[in-house]
Amino acid sequence: MIHPAPNVVVVGGGIMGACIAWNLAKAGIRVTVLEQQARPAAGATWWSYGWVGTASAFPSEAPNAFALKQQALREFASLERDLSSLPYAARGALVWCENDHETAHLVAEQQAVGVAMNLIDRLAIQQLEPQLRELPTCAAWAPNDFALEPIQLTQQLLQAAQALGAELRYNVRVDSLVTQGDKVIGVRSTQGDINADVVMLANGIAAQQLLLDYGVAAPITEAPAVLMRWQASETCVHHLICADDLELRPDRQGGIVVAMDYPEEGEAGLESLVLAVKKRLEQMIMPSPTLSLHSMAGAYRPLTHSGMPYREMCAAIKGLYVTVAHPGIILGPYLARLSVEEVLNYLANQKFIYGF
Ligand SMILES: Cc1cc2nc3c(=O)[nH]c(=O)nc-3n(C[C@H](O)[C@H](O)[C@H](O)COP(=O)(O)OP(=O)(O)OC[C@H]3O[C@@H](n4cnc5c(N)ncnc54)[C@H](O)[C@@H]3O)c2cc1C
Using an 8 Å Cβ cutoff, are 151 and 46 in contact? Predict the structure, then answer.
């Protein structure tokens, strides 16, 4: 008797769900992606800055998380081959800290763990970013870091999954799991029950509630950060720039994307933050660009308590897999591959026969 290919439901159409769906579809699994919003990438991914690299962090601050990012970055070469192209917004990162001593320390630490990074002087910074007015005496230059447009990357992955047979369903919220004994057999959604051999949760912080219903306390939390997209009269910056407390990069239309810490005053501080960033950009760039704010949000990033991914087949409910991790654009492709490998092993152990 020939059994149909196993059926996996992926909850969440952000970067993590898209990476998972694509890996499942490549493996010949029947995939259904359920996303509660009307479009893909509508959660944290919509507001992501899209830095893919390690240059802004001191490895010694979180050695395990840093090493994981280094490992995950290797995945992008094969991702680019598989998808034919990636939505690059910038290549190379310039980073400077509060003072030259700290910047030199950053370079030394990164070099010690094998990152391609050099300490460059003001002249070299000027050659890379000729329109920057305020230049430090030195900066760290990481040629291999890059920025991807997270929304487009998510769309690309979902389209690639769809081309391999995955079904994408929007405006469908999963409210609970459907179980039989200790095994998941589907999800209960706003469009009724949907059967599944495996359910993979890639819905960020919202995974917590679905798990709590089964007494599983997921070690997930969330924290806000601010993303602003500015339209500019002309192309002003060419690389990822991390100038102490301000991160900026070009977008693919010549505008500027800025990422910042959330204001201490909370939402009330957002308006003055926008004005302060505008002023700072006008001062930083020459000639001062005409800037208009395209969009801005204080958006919540799904984080884990340990800072390391929460990625596991749930011990309490067979066939339920969870993948939540930060930073998701960097880690998504790598963790999704590992998660799907585990799910394939699980399915094989369940004695499914699916033709490979
Ligand atoms: C300002 C900012 C800057 C960032 N910068 C970077 C960066 O430079 N590099 C980097 O790697 N990362 C960065 N991140 C983090 C990164 O964006 C996130 O780690 C990543 O987007 C998380 O992806 P996700 O798919 O896990 O979650 P999400 O994108 O939130 O996707 C989860 C999806 O699940 C859906 N969903 C939730 N519950 C349900 C349900 N019950 N039923 C159906 N659907 C559901 C949601 O609508 C959502 O679309 C940044 C984040 C922010 C906010």
Answer: yes
Alpha carbon distance 86, 79 (integer Å): 8
Q: Which of 9, 15, 20, 45 to mutate to test the pocket of ligand 1 (most atoms within 8 A of CB)?
A: 45
> pTM score, two decimals?
0.97
The per-residue pLDDT for range 239-271, each reduced to its tens digit, is 999 998 799 999 998 899 999 999 999 999 999
From the centroid of its chain, how far is CA 112? 26
List Cα–Cα distances, 294 to 227, 261, 297, 301, in angstroms: 11, 19, 11, 21
DSSP 8-class letter at 53: S
Query: Would the CB of 12 count as within 6 Å of ligand 1?
Result: yes
Rounded to whole angstroms, how far apart are CA atoms 346 and 348?
5
Give Cβ neighbours of residue 347 (< 8 Å, ≥ 6 apart): 6, 29, 197, 198, 354
Asked if residue 174 has pLDDT above 50, the reply is yes
Interval 39-72: pLDDT, tens: 999 999 999 999 999 999 999 999 999 999 999 9
Q: Go through the domains of the chain in sequence order and give each one's CATH number.
A: 7-46+151-219+305-349 (3.50.50.60), 88-146+222-301 (3.30.9.10)
